Amino acid sequence: MPTDSRYFAQKAIDAADELWDKGLIDENTIEQWKHEHMRTPYSEQMGNVKNFETLEDMMNYLEA
Asked: With a threshold of 0.85, does the pTM exceed it?
């Protein structure tokens, strides 16, 4: 995996951690985010699109 992917994934995790530490998000917020579908709709031809349940899942995928 390109290093850029890990860099931006880590930035997203750091930003979420900061929001959590400031009390701006909590477990309920994270649970709501899990069910939001704000992604661009892709055609079925794009079989390489990955969806992750958690940030940890994404990081594990990127490190593999």
From this structure: no
